[in-house]
Write a structure and sequence with these properties.
By secondary structure, the chain is mostly helical. Helices cover 60% and strands 5% of the residues. The protein is built from 12 helices and 4 strands. The strands form 2 sheets. The chain has a two-stranded antiparallel ribbon. Strands 3-4 form a two-stranded antiparallel sheet. The chain is globular, with a radius of gyration of 18 Å.
Length: 208
């Protein structure tokens, strides 16, 4: 499956190594998330969404710090304040956490974004911008899955497990949006140095 355990391990080691070298607070937070593997940034997003009691999709400083602590990010108050100030562009005392997570995502070249979108479009059979079990029926063969072969899972359960890989962990609804797909691959992308290798990996994984 794309985003293999080996990539995750390499990325985590690389992120920990870079942490000792960087002083930029946003980069340090990004590396602490990536040190947990491809889903690290998504995981922080989940914590923030749980904290967002009033569904305002914004956080004040207190919620922001509590979220970081709940996610066990090692950060002192000064550093947290600095990050918060960077994201609180209008000085309102709150930050928009969608914007925050997008900025935290490791930057990707256009070539990488394009191949990720190609994979998304291939899976999104109905073209509505969301991948569901129905979309997967013609694209992904569940019958090779070991749990299907030994009778543990139905075809739909295999599809659902596949979608859950990409789905945001705080909201596993069996639907994968473009943003969730992109977030997942931003994590994978961080562990792959060259565009060429990333593109080959995607083409092989999705038969593009």
């Amino acid at each position: 499956m794309p985003g293999t355990a080996r990539h995750d391990r390499e990325m985590a080691i690389q992120a920990k190594r870079n942490l000792s070298k960087t002083t930029d607070p946003v980069e340090r937070l990004r590396l602490q998330c990536l040190a947990r593997g491809s889903a690290g940034i998504k995981g922080l997003g989940r914590v923030f969404r749980i904290m967002d009691d009033d569904n305002s999709r914004t956080l004040d400083f207190k919620e922001f710090v509590k979220g970081l602590n709940d996610y066990a990010v090692m950060i002192d108050k000064e550093e947290a304040q600095e990050i918060f100030r960077i994201f609180d562009k209008d000085g309102s005392g709150t930050i928009d956490f969608d914007e925050f997570l997008i900025t935290l995502r490791p930057p990707m070249s256009n070539a990488r974004k394009e191949i990720i979108m190609q994979a998304f479009r291939k899976l999104d059979k109905t073209g509505d911008g969301v991948i569901t079990i129905e979309d997967l029926r013609g694209v992904y063969n569940a019958k090779h899955h070991p749990k299907y072969q030994n009778g543990d899972w139905t075809e739909d359960q295999v599809f659902r497990a596949f979608l859950d890989n990409f789905d945001s962990p705080y909201d596993k609804d069996g639907k994968v949006t473009t943003e969730e797909f992109m977030n997942y691959y931003a994590g994978v992308s961080a562990s792959i140095d060259t565009d060429v290798y990333f593109i080959i990996m995607m083409k092989n994984a999705w038969k593009l």
